[in-house]
Amino acid sequence: MHNLRLVSDLLGPDLVGHAAHDDAVRRLRASYEAIPDGAPVRLAKRTTNLFRPRAATDAPGLDVSGLTGVVNVDVDPATGQATADVQGMCTYEDLVAVTLARGFIPYVVPQLRTITLGGAVTGLGIEATSFRNGLPHESVVEMDVFTGAGEVVTCSREERSDLFFAFANSYGTLGYTTRIRILLEKVPPFVRLRHLRFDDPDSAAAAIARIVDARSHDGVRVDAIDGTAFSPGEIFLTLAEFTDEPQRVSDYTGQQIYYRSIAERTTDALTMESYLWRWDTDWFWCSGAFGAQNPLIRRVWPRKHRRSDVFQRIVGLDTKYGLAHKLDVLKRNGIEKRERVIQDIEVAVDRLPEFLRWFDEAVGMRPVWLCPLRLREPDGPGSATRWPLYPLEPGTTYVNVGFWGTVAVPGDAPAGLVNRQVEEKVHELGGHKSLYSEAFYDAETFADLYNLPHLTEVKAAYDPKDRLTGLYEKAVKRR
């Protein structure tokens, strides 16, 4: 009874509640029934955080419009452990607004506001707490999944575990989440930052390995860590300490730009909310492509429109109409062209220097984002879980390397020239790459890297009529 009272205390106008959630699921079921039998099933969703094109279709999709909120938040009175029941299409921006008001955040909050929880769980997400909390799917307690068969099934580590464990990196090929119960972490209101400079990738990688293992540096606890490589000889690690102690905080939603501050300051402080969204305002550093970092333009560019989804919509319009490509063709007269290289890859920390040196020579894109991660060990060393579709090794520190932009290639270069080279190098180093962006693997290599035989087996159980698009078809063939 005490627990029920506590749950009631945490309900509020910002929560959806179970009745509205059940009604949204009913509408979802009705939209499935309206799709012609045998036709492919996909979401009726206007926005996306994917960076790979998909075939256009006029076919009706699943109505997920009512699945965008937080159902409830619960705290165990005995342990203080908090969980939240969250609808699958809820953005992290909306999720954090609810939980942070109560003193909690998800274990991992991806960098961009409009990434959805369901998207991060099925498509992988990462952030600076991933060195201790793993990836978003690792803090999931249970999920309700709307399958290709048109059924809502609940899965967890104990119930329908085949679906639960195969869901991470399945990208909607097994179904879509309607409700996800996740663990929450209690956090204080402020974050202290330290920016450490390294002059070469070897010393930076050694520091990453040491700090991740110790979870501290110079006797100070490290709650989050990521890095920014501005050049081969200018690499920074940013160490975050969550604190209750009041701080004089910076504001990077105005004229100041966060990523520039990393090389300009040795210490800094932010509110917890500002820290979570520090990369969103300028889409890491990519806002510069739209002029949003020019001081004059920045003054007249409304703050509310300085955010990743606005920049992404601009890119979407350009992709649709191809204006930048047409101008580039005229400018370069066919001698060169630009190839879009938007990728996140993971290699073990001891292979990081080799990858960065190769990258500097072969690609040369800067800056580059670095984010350490390990599989979560909830019960201490040796307790990590292997996830079959993205097989990272327990006890191994990996580093996510993120690079986003365009590079010049010969005018007669085949499609995906540089992206294919990246894939080959990552494969050579025993790493993996995220599938949110374009992929060019052949079918056999892809099946081996992402364990397609296992996915096919699970898919047969929950999508027996093959209504949902397969992973290779989505990620490589872009259907």
Describe the structure.
32% of the residues lie in helices and 23% in strands. It has 479 residues and is an alpha+beta fold. The protein folds into three domains: 2-186, Uridine Diphospho-n-acetylenolpyruvylglucosamine Reductase, domain 3; 190-279, no CATH class; 322-440, 2-Layer Sandwich (Alpha-Beta Plaits). The strands form three sheets. The chain has an eight-stranded antiparallel beta sheet with strand order 12-7-11-10-14-15-13-16. Strands 1, 2, 3, 4, 5 and 6 form a six-stranded antiparallel beta sheet that branches. A hairpin with a 2-residue loop joins strand 8 and strand 9 (220-221). The longest helix is centred in the first third of the chain and has 17 residues, at 18-34. Mean pLDDT is 91; it is low at 1-9.
Biggest sheet details: 8 strands, antiparallel
CATH top level label of the largest domain: Alpha Beta
Our Rg estimate from Cα atoms comes to 22 Å
Report the total helices. 17
Tell me which oligomeric state these chains represent.
Answer: single chain
Q: Could you name the ranges where pLDDT drops below 50 across 5 or more consecutive residues? A: 1-9
What share of the residues does DSSP label as strand, in percent? 15-25%
CATH topology of the largest domain: Uridine Diphospho-n-acetylenolpyruvylglucosamine Reductase, domain 3
The general outline is globular
Distance between the termini: 50 Å
Query: What is the topology, as strand order, of the major beta sheet?
Result: 12-7-11-10-14-15-13-16
What is the SS-derived class? Answer: alpha+beta
Q: Helicity level, as a percent range? A: 25-40%
- Report the count of strand segments: 16
- What is the residue-averaged pLDDT? 91
- Total domains, how many? 3
User: What CATH architecture label of the largest domain applies?
Assistant: 2-Layer Sandwich
